[in-house]
Design a protein that fits this description.
The chain is of the alpha/beta class and about 200 residues long. The chain has one domain: Rossmann fold. The chain is built from eight helices and seven strands, in the order αααββαββαβαααββ. The longest helix is centred in the N-terminal third of the chain and has 15 residues. Bound molecules: S-adenosylmethionine.
Length: about 200
């Protein structure tokens, strides 16, 4: 529980400056993540760790997005973005812990998580929850900073990075495959070298 509390405090501090400090480095990843998802009007998408909602403007009108985050401060920013009319899709925001999704099995056509899978306390629990609420054969798209070989030194910083809400380094493709997800494509995006991985749930 401590990791969730630390992350929540960190994002209360980041929320007012997040769009100015982090958004420019994440822009390409958000655009390409939603493009790769290719959600069609009428389809229902889950977005985990939506933050201030930078990605939301990329969904086309008619797509229904349930976007959740643990941080009330980050969600407040996302709410403002929607109220200003910056988003075409039908978005419902939820304050929710990604480790315990309050949705029934097979609720969504597809699911995405941007720059948040390494931030959550237990990435495998979150991925399996996302799989549970997504229909068989649906797409699950992840974009995240990633080091091919973090090495011992980088891993040693994980506890500090977790406390700052910056995420830990781990082998993302390995984890996705261990969860039973089929990797469809794997590309480098963003000037900070994030990884955009498109996967498919077993049919
Ligand atoms: C680096 S931000 C990414 C925000 C957004 N997806 C983006 O790409 O700009 C990570 C987000 O994950 C959220 N988060 C961390 N742990 C969470 C959890 N257990 N449940 C839901 N959201 C969580 C944080 O509150 C934060 O908004």
């Amino acid at each position: 529980m401590a990791a969730r509390k630390d992350t929540n405090i960190a994002y209360k501090i980041y929320a007012p400056v997040y769009d100015r400090v982090f958004a420019p480095s994440f822009a390409e990843g958000h655009t390409r993540m939603v493009e790769a998802l290719d959600a069609q009007p009428g389809e229902r998408v889950l977005e985990v760790g939506v933050g201030t909602g930078i990605s939301l403007r990329h969904y086309v009108a008619g797509v229904r997005v349930d976007a959740l985050d643990f941080s009330a401060a980050m969600l407040k920013k996302a709410r403002k973005r929607i109220d200003k009319g910056e988003v075409a899709a039908e978005v419902t925001l939820h304050q929710m812990d990604a480790h315990k999704l309050e949705f029934n099995d097979d609720t969504f056509d597809h699911a995405v998580v941007a720059h948040a899978i390494a931030v959550v306390a237990e990435p495998e629990v979150v991925l399996r929850e996302m799989m549970r609420v997504t229909q068989p054969g649906g797409k699950l798209v992840v974009v995240n900073h990633y080091k091919d070989d973090p090495g011992k030194l980088w891993r040693a910083w994980n506890p500090v990075r977790r406390k700052l809400g910056l995420g830990q380094h781990f082998d993302l493709p390995e984890l996705l495959q261990a969860c039973g997800l089929e990797i469809v494509s794997d590309n480098i995006v963003n000037r900070i070298k994030s990884r955009l991985i498109v996967t498919r749930l077993p049919a």
